[in-house]
Automatic annotation (TrEMBL):
Lineage: Bacteria, Pseudomonadati, Bacteroidota, Flavobacteriia, Flavobacteriales
Domain Ferritin/DPS, first and last residues per copy: 16-155
Molecular function GO terms recorded: DNA binding; ferric iron binding; oxidoreductase activity, acting on metal ions
PROSITE patterns: DPS_1
UniProt family annotation: Belongs to the Dps family.
Name of the protein described by the UniProt record: Starvation-inducible DNA-binding protein
InterPro entries xrefs: DPS_DNA-bd (IPR002177), DPS_DNA-bd_CS (IPR023188), Ferritin-like (IPR012347), Ferritin-like_SF (IPR009078), Ferritin_DPS_dom (IPR008331)
Annotated keywords: DNA-binding
Length: 169
């Protein structure tokens, strides 16, 4: 670790958590491919394209996460059977409605965000600014995507919370 100037003992938990994120992202990626292939109904055109956008983004993140693990001088987990054992995201039937698919993706986003926040905490303890920078950007993007998918899923009669602002004289 001499060129990174990071304490290897503090870095191991970061790498462990990155490998868990890698596992989750790989299963999430495959689920998105499955939904992309199997979406039916009136929302086909919108969701077929959206799922492709999401799995393309996931594919890029998978590569970046694995490369970050390599940068930290560890080997990334790279077999699907390990991903299925390690990860919290599980395989799912593609025989779902459009709203069920979006609900499943939003559940997965919650798990990914939870994992990312653990990584940021451990990376902060290790002084690993590079990992914090990468994962912080992922959090911001995934929160926005989740908001948009959640808005798509809602009934148009539902409203956001309101907060009346008082005028200060």
């Amino acid at each position: 670790m001499s060129y990174l100037k990071l304490d290897e003992n503090k870095l191991e938990p970061v790498v462990d958590e990155l490998n868990l994120l890698l596992a989750n992202y790989n299963v999430y990626y495959q689920k998105l491919r499955s939904f992309h292939w199997n979406i039916l109904g009136e929302n086909f055109f919108v969701l077929h394209d959206k799922f492709e956008e999401l799995y393309t983004d996931a594919r890029i993140k998978i590569d970046e996460i694995a490369e970050r693990i390599l940068t930290l001088r560890y080997h990334p987990v790279s077999d699907f059977s390990s991903y299925l054992k390690m990860g919290k995201i599980k395989e799912e039937s593609a025989l779902l409605t459009d709203k069920q698919m979006i609900g499943s993706i939003l559940d997965d986003h919650g798990l990914l965000l939870e994992q990312m926040r653990v990584i940021v905490s451990k990376a902060n303890s290790a002084g690993d600014e590079g990992t914090i920078d990468i994962i912080g950007g992922y959090i911001r993007e995934l929160e926005k995507t989740s908001w948009m998918l959640n808005a798509w899923k809602k009934d148009t009669r539902e409203q956001l919370k309101t907060n009346k602002m008082e005028r200060v004289s």
